[in-house]
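Reviewer 2 asked us to include a model.

Predict the structure of this chain.
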Amino acid sequence: MKQTIFSLLIFLSFGFVFEAEAGILKSKPRKSMMPEKVEAIVKNIKSVTATNCKKEWKQGREQRFDWVSNNWFMISDEVITYDQESGWITEVTGIIDRYRISYNPSGTMSAVYIEYPSDSNQTEWLTESIITFKYDEIVPDFLVELLLYEAIEENGEMEVVYGEREKITRNDDGNIISIEEMYFFNDPAFPDWIPGEYKTSITYGDDKKAKTITTYILNDFGQWVQESVLTDIVWDWTDGQIVETHLSDSAFYMRNTNRIKSASVLISETTKAQFKATYPAEGDFDLTISMMGQTIEQWVYVTEDKYGSYTSTKTANEENEFTGQPEEYKEIESKIFDAFGQSIYEAKYVALDKEIFYNMISEADVTYDTTYGYPLEYVYVTAKDCKTFKNDSRIVLSDYVEVTSAIGSVEADTTASAVYYNLQGLRIDNPTPGNLYIRRQGDKISKIIY
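Predicted model (structure tokens):
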């Protein structure tokens, strides 16, 4: 598959991959099967609704370097164009390609056009690929369909070559009862959409709140196998629009419209563990999983500041598969972001019985403009396994422009026009008095009798 050389993110936090041992909270989150080109773009473009706006400086050029053979090797050089009214990125031009981005009125991406120049002067551009995005009508930030179009060599027409879909089903109350991943590969062997890796089934009690959430995984034989089951759920609050269902994903606890207070975790047909979560402050959570009165896993997530900095600590008490003796597994991850959304410090430690067997620290030396305060350069050094810090990567930002930008995260807009849907999720332009509807106003969702 083709791979993109450049990313579109202005402030990309450096990440890493570390797969831990099996465990309820350490199980691997679901992984997209989309081509790397598409995945890079989807992950790397940030877009927010431009409400409560202010003027803000944003870089018009971004250069990225890796430290290779004792020299800085440039991996990307991008010129960035913004919409002056919203501050959204509309165009990113690299050394050999260009991305053009269009948006929905809410600020979510509607399409990305991937183009390459037809001549060495970059005076004319040819569209090679188009990625389109579709979102759920009721949960407007939840992506339900992604399509990748590519030009057919014979006639230049665009054809869908890959697709990814979240198939949502709602009950008569308008609550989500199932989410199923679907994929499309444009392969003669798979002419239609096929099941993805995961699906989720949700059942509700008489109080119309979810009581059971079951996640299935597709095995190598094409059979659905239970991966996790939550039963006896007690909610802190819920609106029935449950789109995050994976225990090991922090988004499961941070989406503010659905928060679980307690539940049972089905370990086997006859064994259950108890799951409890508290939310000490906005963005924080503290959860434990216990069996027979003993804590077997704990996850504490603390938001450090308004920029999204956090510390995450996961602890599990397990039995050594060779000795049969209990041992403690601990994983600590910390990230600090500056006011511009860029990671400036990252650390991760993994220990078994208090003995560290993996550690990584990454720090940034940052240069800010002395007049306007915006960042000019980030130079990262990284140390792994207690070794000496070494140059890792570098970001150079220049050609700043002043544009309108949303302030922080989008808050509820109480003046926004209300949009109504029936309980099957279809938009209703003229609601009938006395009927039950789902109302979305800004980012708030509620059920009301009109």
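Confidence is low (pLDDT under 50) at residues 1-22, 27-31, 45-53, 407-414. The chain is about 5% helix and 55% strand. We have added this to the supplementary material.
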